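Translate structure to sequence.
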């Protein structure tokens, strides 16, 4: 959007931004898919150095032994980096690109572990497409923009079991303060993931039910 849509139209859904933590569900989904991880696998959330890099959790604390499920729901950084190290950052980047996502790394460097925490430029439209795939059994359908556009050919992100596991974990995440999920027999389960980029330049929330996916970015057009 823009301040005055009639005078100047800015399609910020296609601008490259740091995704923050919004890629974590797809890292776990890839590990679930290759059977190197299970939602109840125990991960040690403790300080660990990866070469010269010592990542830290958002709360600057560590939490000891946690399950993969708990680590993803709490968006812990250290376990996410460990899982990406397990599946391989280059392999993970290739998975996203094969799903149609555009990835731009700083100074054209190869994919590396900071990818887990948002060390890449991505577009809102691609993050929405990836989250929709988790809610659709791992099936990727690129968005159709025009009313009479031909339906795109679907591709695969991960297998149905891995997609369902990642989506179910996110659907069990605690809601933000003051926000209540629907109640009753017809309540809609919503899987969602938030993300914040370095320096608080970008704030994300991406959620998906069985029928709808909504992706929201908040920030400044100039990236300040």
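Result:
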């Amino acid at each position: 959007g823009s301040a005055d849509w009639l005078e100047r139209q800015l399609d910020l859904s296609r601008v490259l931004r740091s995704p923050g933590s919004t890629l974590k569900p797809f890292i776990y989904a890839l590990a679930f898919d290759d059977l190197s991880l299970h939602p109840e696998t125990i991960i040690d959330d403790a300080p660990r150095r990866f070469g010269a890099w010592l990542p830290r959790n958002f709360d600057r604390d560590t939490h000891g032994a946690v399950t993969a499920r708990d680590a993803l729901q709490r968006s812990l950084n250290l376990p996410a980096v460990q899982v990406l190290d397990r599946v391989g950052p280059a392999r993970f980047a290739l998975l996203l690109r094969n799903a149609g996502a555009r990835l731009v790394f700083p100074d054209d460097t190869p994919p590396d572990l900071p990818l887990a925490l948002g060390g890449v430029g991505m577009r809102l439209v691609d993050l929405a497409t990836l989250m929709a795939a988790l809610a659709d059994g791992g099936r990727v359908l690129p968005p159709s923009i025009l009313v009479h556009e031909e339906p795109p050919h679907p591709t695969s992100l991960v297998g149905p079991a891995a997609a369902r596991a990642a989506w179910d974990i996110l659907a069990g995440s605690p809601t933000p303060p003051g926000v209540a999920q629907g109640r009753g027999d017809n309540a809609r389960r919503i899987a969602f993931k938030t993300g914040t980029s370095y320096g608080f330049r970008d704030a994300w929330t991406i959620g998906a039910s069985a029928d709808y996916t909504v992706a929201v970015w908040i920030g400044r057009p100039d990236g300040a």
